[in-house]
Amino acid sequence: MPGQISYDDPIIYPGKPGAAHLHQFFGNTKANAYSTYSSLRGAGDSTCMSPLNRSAYWMPAMLDGKGKVVRPDYVSIYYKRRPKSSPKCQGLGGTAQGLGICVDTPNGIKFVFGFDPTNPQAAPTGAAYFTCSGTGAVAGKWKTITEAVGKCPVGARLGAVINAPKCWDGKNLDTPNHRSHMAYVSYGSWGYERCPTTHPYVVPTFTMGAWFTVDANLKTWYLSSDHMLPGALPGQTFHADFFMAWDPTVKKIWHENCIDKLLNCSDGELGNGKAIHQTWPKSFNASPRLVAVPPHA
To answer: What's the rounded Cα separation, in Å, for the pair 129 and 145?
Structure first.
């Protein structure tokens, strides 16, 4: 479910409230410009339906061009990684055509992926796209919101989907550009999926999707960060931020069972016969769906 809306960014502008473009947060309900791993672990509820995952996730706010923020109905975050026992998790290359060395998600790791607000001319990462579901939706993946107009009718849901990186340098929880400690796999000239030699460790990656009910104003929708790229089409600057703050004990159980046993854990299941107690929101419709764009001091 959606969380707070603010001009804070605890990764790019730590300790500087109001310095960023408008963000839609998910996860920890107290994430703000001053957030640290300790503060995220120590306070806040979670829109992930349990404070055992107080991680913070955020993306540029969706604006309708009429003075309103469009809040998503729901957000899906799906984690995956090969089990540590897999031959492809024992190192790079070799006869097993190894992906890298599979490890657990480090406590407190943070990074930005997709469009780069600190270097707008850089190639975006994360294979981000927009799609549509619901009655009358046209199947497809589009790079901009503009391309979705006419294919995602009123009442359907526009999905903004992006993939996090899975390759880690094994040393840094953050870097000055908030990206270079993470990397994506490639097939290179060798012809199989592999992390770069500079980032030989494989952490569970995730796909994040935010889903918005479409209204008659879709043709004027855009992301709050689009102004950062001159001439950008609406949605072209889609990116996301992640600040990991899972409960360490639960995270360990989740890695050892759901991830390393290749189990499809959902609804808070931990793969060992136990489950995280969740507070069910009882609705997959944002309420309110539209809120006024807050003033930017």
So the answer is: 9
